[in-house]
Design brief:
The structure is a homodimer of 180-residue chains.
Chain A lengths: L3 H12 L4 H12 L7 H13 L3 E6 L7 E6 L1 H12 L10 H7 L6 H32 L6 H32 L1
Antiparallel strand pairs in A: 1-2
Chain B binds a DNA duplex (28 and 28 nucleotides) through helix 3.
DNA sequence: AAAACCATGTAATTGGTTACATGATTGG
DNA sequence: CCAATCATGTAACCAATTACATGGTTTT
């Protein structure tokens, strides 16, 4: 079948050949607002994808650090990704623990909820700052790059959602204050 | 330990005693923008929660339709929920297939991406309409209710995020048009 | 009588997490 | 030399999904 993690891997390999370790980093640095991976998932999938002939890996010496297995796409792998990319996505099955706790907030002390909101707002502010940095570096690096449009608009989405969350936090804080 | 689904169940039972079937409906109607459940998950969890003494169920005749097992919270169940509510939430592990496809969009024909965006925008417009309806009914029903603040602000969040997504869609469409 | 809805359940499988284990290399 | 970083892997476990199975009740 091919799990979504498989597709994330194939997608990352369209950018450039990468090791599993680098894929994890790329997720954290560039996909974090809509994707994440763990090593315990990544490495077994890479093995599986190799068996299926969708990627191939070879050990390479690095400028610094130990050797790494650098994977690249096979033509089958590229075809598999393209096929997946034109299929409609499954409906998104959201599960937000944060919102679940918020929704049932009346069952908890108000100050616990308020503090959680403040923490959440701080986190969103950190994210905003990160997006600003990413935006600067991305615009230079990406000029004329094939992925330019999609990457910038992915970032833009992160920023718009981040703004919306911050606005929500501010509104909530105002209302919390009114309750007292 | 207690999965998040367990906590969702306990939370829903603070509103009123409910059957598994009604919990599913409640998720779809009221929690859909941050939570969902399937029967195949709900029923086994309800059994488990009963064994743990956190909920109790008894078969009841309904005004219409077949009998249903209506569950209610035990005092242990209520305590368990309150304990969970004051703990900080785990970090959210997002995985958006839609965004994964978008991010790697350069590997697919532009018109496929554009059409997917249009579909997505339509979906967001439907969601906007739904929120409007919910808002109207909620404001009347909820006046003075213990959950009023948290429910209205949960809805508000859904609306703000929905607005942000719609704005993103419009921006993307404009840029798509510029590319041609 | 059929379709739609109300209602509950289970078994097989999947997809992924967590924790553990190992070891090379680099910088302080 | 020690800590941090780079790098790969596996085994046990888990939560949840999917598909299947059943049957009562209401509406058309």
């Amino acid at each position: 079948m091919g799990s979504k993690t498989d597709m994330a891997i194939l997608g990352m390999l369209t950018i450039e050949p990468m090791s599993g370790y680098e894929m994890k980093q790329f997720c954290e640095e560039s996909l974090s607002h809509f994707w994440y991976e763990t090593f315990g998932n990544l490495y077994p999938r890479l093995k599986q994808l190799t068996d299926e002939g969708l990627v191939k890996g070879r050990s390479e010496k690095r400028e610094r650090g130990p050797d790494a297995i650098v994977y690249s796409l096979t033509s089958q792998g590229r075809a598999r990704l393209r096929k997946w990319l034109i299929e409609p996505p499954d409906s998104e099955n959201v599960r937000s623990e944060f919102m679940l706790k918020f929704f049932f907030g009346a069952q908890a002390p108000a100050d616990v909820n308020e503090q959680r909101l403040i923490d959440y707002e701080e986190e969103q502010k950190r994210i905003r700052k990160r997006y600003q940095l990413i935006e600067q570096t991305l615009r230079d690096v990406l000029d004329g790059h094939k992925d330019e449009f999609y990457w910038l608009m992915s970032l833009r989405r992160g920023q718009l959602l981040n703004e919306a969350r911050l606005r929500w936090c501010r509104e909530c804080r105002t209302k919390f204050a009114e309750l007292k």
